[in-house]
Small ribosomal subunit protein uS5
Amino acid sequence: MKITPVQKQTRAGQRTRFKAFVVVGDGDGHVGLGVKCAKEVATAIRGAIILAKLSVVPVRRGYWGNKIGKPHTVPCKVTGKCGSVTVRMVPAPRGSGIVAARVPKKVLQFAGIEDVFTSSRGSTKTLGNFVKATFDCLMKTYGFLTPDFWRETRFIKTLFQEYTDLLARPKGLTYGFLTPDFWRETRFIKTPFQEYTDLLARPKGLVIEAPAEKIEA
């Protein structure tokens, strides 16, 4: 988009560097913006291209009026801002073209927008803020959920709604009684004392000998 020199005041004097603004896009709903500052122009451009490719975002497109053919304009009115610059985009009918200044027109072409009306306010002479405001405007196209993006709503009853009849009963009535349908099957397990009751009930002095095994010759 543009290469501009920037300066920084140091003890040794003014240090000049070059700032590059690069926009990339496929003309089919994807655009990216990169800004890089370096001592040399080639280094700044190379770095800006890399950053622009890393910041590619999808751009949502829509229709003006009937949904005939491919999407050609922005889906709704969107506004982007950077610094003092404000850019506003309005959907336009097919065939209107891109009604915009030179800077945002290039960005919109890279994004694949064919028809749109734009208006800008602020210090648009500052190209960096003008480009960033346009890019911010395109990023917000997916921020507005139109009805075609709505999901089917499933209404689930809350606990208060589900048990309204139970809560509406008189306060003095208790619900501590379990009906048979709430009963669980009871399994009775003998304790060691119950299992060896006969053994423990024998006299203490009685010695029990095990039966001798018969040995067959």
In short: The two ends are 113 Å apart (CA to CA). Strands lie at 2-10, 13-25, 30-38, 57-58, 78-82, 85-91, 98-99, 116-121.
